[in-house]
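ok so for the tutorial part 2 we go from a plain amino acid sequence to predicted structure tokens. step 1 is just haveing the sequence, like this:
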Amino acid sequence: MVHEGSEPGLVIVYTGDGKGKTTAALGLCLRAVGHGYNVRIIQFIKSDWPYGERRGLERLAPEVQLDSLGAGCIGIMGDDKPIEEHRAAAQAALKAAEVAISSGKHDIVILDEITIAIHLDLISANDVLALIANKPGPVNVVLTGRYAPAEIIDAADLVTEMKEIKHPFREGKLGREGIDF
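step 2 — the prediction. this is what the tokens look like for a chain of 181 residues:
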């Protein structure tokens, strides 16, 4: 652990149907790196597709380590992999999260799209609850994704819900490079 403070680490959840959950977590990551913290990001749905977040985070190494362990954007963007492949990838990501959180090497561990993995029954909420209950005291854990279950929200210290008010997708416009991916 790079920074061991006297205060215990937080469990933070960014959820809701609006855009900005991963972006909020990455903003926290950027702030933490500015203070010399070590951050590990484990993505549960996204694969190694070369999106802007990936390219940007690679520039923050070695303070930031990104592992996109998902099998891809399940059911969208041309994904036709069997659910078993997505489930195996999410289970492997959960194991990687356990190792990262307990390792003592990271001040912050971001579990991107983990609540989607729960919602899609790729991993269980109980496994995630055990993961955050057993985290070492100073480690901060950030969970992102739509559909955060009530028991995850109850276990968290800080919860922010992103609410969509208006989005160009609703008008049939495609995502924009640098804005949406």
